Batch of 3 targets.
Target 1
Amino acid sequence: MARFIKGMPITLYERTQTGVDGFNQPIYTETPVVVENVLVGEPSTDDITNDLTMYGKHLAYTLAIPKGDAHDWTDVHVEFWGERFRTYGAPTQGIEDNIPLDWNKKVKVERYGG
């Protein structure tokens, strides 16, 4: 029996600037969008330690984003497994045609909230 790698749906909260506050800082609204076929990977102990040392972030998971996805994954909230996370750092991307599987971007997430 053949087994195939399959991602899961996650909710990405797209941000749209709706104004500015009294300190001239942007105010955003978030709109939930379901993104299908996202892989959720467990980071290594070295990756967790390095990100904590370099960025002050506690790496919870790494998400593999499907080819062709055009969403902005920089510093946004995501939800999966009933928990809320926040992406950090710029997503890394490979050349779509040179990667044999269905995913060509990676983004790091940290646990958000309680």
Target 2
Amino acid sequence: MFFKGSRYEKVEEAELTNAGGRVVRYKKVRFITDPQPQGAHRVEQGDRLDLISYSYFQDPERFWRIADANRGLWPDDLLEEPGRLILVPATED
């Protein structure tokens, strides 16, 4: 259902049957664990989270790991303030 490396890949699945007998499959809530930072990145003007992710993980689609490590609900908000330090988690949990 989700691609390998997706933030939802390891989230437990569940299902329910509605009144019409249709089975609905869904993912349970994804809880964010405390990050194990490998370091920090100082935000510079023009930074993009996908490029930061690529520089640390060699995968631009793992930007969500940096957002989770910084409790960022809106990932781009992490980059609004040049000079800010954002946590970069370990490559894998």
Target 3
Amino acid sequence: MRLDVAEARLRFASVPVARLATAGPDGRPHVVPFTFAVGPDPGHGDHIYSAVDSKPKSTTDLRRLRNIAANPQVAVLADEYQDDWDGLWWVRADGHATILDDPAAMAPALALLAGRYQQYRAHPPGGPVISIQVARWTGWAAGPG
């Protein structure tokens, strides 16, 4: 069954990890799992925020950041898999991403992330922050769960 926007947003925000899809200037897709928080941006609708944190990475020149700089259109996918397929669902948020690197601009997003993830309270991310203005929520569920 198709999910309405309110139910799609609620389910999306309930999972701890989603997948961020970007594409670079060459059109090649790039998908990575990421932690996130959903929050309103007054006057601008729903936003999804994620921060570059201190988890080990092979480089700080992250492909997702380069892709967003070249092509800000992104998609984010959250889902639930269960062996009982009546519990299956997925939600996709399509939107426009920007990179925040000013400490004042990052502060509200970092506060949302710290409120959601205990690890960020102990070790606040240094950023930058990916800010996605959601243009469209879509989703599907096998049942009403």
